[in-house]
Amino acid sequence: MKLDSLPRFHLAEFPTPIQYLDGLTKKCKGPAIYMKRDDLTSLGMGGNKTRKLEFLIGEALYQEKNTLVTAGGIQSNHCRLTAAAASKAGLECHLVLNGTEPEIPNGNLLLDKIFGAKIHFCDRKNRDKRFFQVEDELALAGKKPYLIPVGGSNGIGSVGYVNAMLELDTQLNDMDVTPDAIVFASSSGGTQAGLALGAKISGFKGDILGISIDQIKSGSDPFPPVLTSIANATAERIGSDIRMTDSDFSLNCDYLGAGYAMPGDLEFNAIRDLSLHEGVLLGPVYTARAMGGLIDLIQKGYFTKDQKVLFWHTGGTPELFAWADQLQKKFR
Ligand SMILES: *Cc1c(COP(=O)(O)O)cnc(C)c1O
């Protein structure tokens, strides 16, 4: 494997900590719950995109590009971290964000601006078109754009989560803890593809259970093939012979609620549980939905008391400020 020889740009200190969540475990009266704190990656308020961006920016620099272009929703954590990473790497950053520009930016959008990103607002349906237009405009202006897909999810970015799984393996050995499952928020797929491939490489036997944030139910579900193709592109990139199939991925699609970035009681209750029992913050869009799903699964008896579950906190806490309106109604 050539994991160690791939171009990589240092963005944060690893390993991230693992904590036992005593208060939450007692409250849920189910399995022992641990948390891997990728919300604490030490760049621009943290999150899972940091690990992907180390390899994406490594590749951009290797190709001698000087301008990053990526896209996402107006509160995208991925876009905020791309902007922060671009600053650190000395690259220009352009973000194509679907949504209307608010009078006063908050949450991730405010941070995008503080990190100096150039923002191009558009409609969701025009986003792909706008993305390539921005590329053309930058090229015409003599810049060298490097395109990063939504969520940084491709065979380059996912290498970060293969690495993360190997990092986890070492930590778990040192702690002498073997989780029965790893649970996390899954959306554009790069995190899950990397973790599942990394688990095959490290020999981790537990379930790698993604809680879907915005994908439709399996059956008509186009998502497992996406995971498979990202994972196999990643395997090729690191020179591994492993090939994954759709059945290698477990994805729970029961917690989609009212849709993407539409938090409700499931998410708000999870935010309250973690803040009051652990002093840990979750983001309403991703991590609160995934944690809400985990708590619900525990309540339904999906995990037993003698099991261990590791929740992989993927970040997103700056989202909180963009939902101040709903949160203050819930928490006053
Ligand atoms: C992007 C994101 C995810 C999902 O990761 P994918 O690799 O896109 O599946 C989960 N949590 C947070 C906070 C994110 O920003």
Explain what the structure shows.
This protein is an alpha/beta fold. It has two domains: 3-47 and 154-330, Rossmann fold; 49-151, Rossmann fold (3-Layer(aba) Sandwich), CATH 3.40.50. The protein is 41% helix and 16% strand. It contains eleven helices and ten strands. The chain has helices spanning 22-28, 49-62, 77-89, 107-114, 127-140, 159-175, 190-202, 223-237, 265-278, 287-299, 324-331; strands at residues 18-20, 32-37, 67-73, 92-98, 118-122, 145-147, 181-186, 207-212, 250-252, 308-313. The protein has a six-stranded mixed β-sheet, sandwiched between helices. Helix 4 (107-114) links the parallel strand 4 (92-98) and strand 5 (118-122). The longest helix is centred in the middle third of the chain and has 17 residues, at 159-175. The chain is globular and about 60 Å long. The chain starts with 17 loop residues before the first strand and ends with a helix. The model has no long low-confidence stretch (mean pLDDT 96). The structure holds pyridoxal-5'-phosphate.
How are the SSEs placed, and which strands pair?
Layout: E1 18-20, H1 22-28, E2 32-37, H2 49-62, E3 67-73, H3 77-89, E4 92-98, H4 107-114, E5 118-122, H5 127-140, E6 145-147, H6 159-175, E7 181-186, H7 190-202, E8 207-212, H8 223-237, E9 250-252, H9 265-278, H10 287-299, E10 308-313, H11 324-331
Parallel strand pairs: 2-10, 3-4, 3-6, 4-5, 7-8, 7-10, 8-9
Antiparallel strand pairs: 1-2
The structure holds pyridoxal-5'-phosphate.
Residues 47-48, 77-78, 151, 153, 185-192, 283, 286-287, 314-316 line the site of pyridoxal-5'-phosphate.
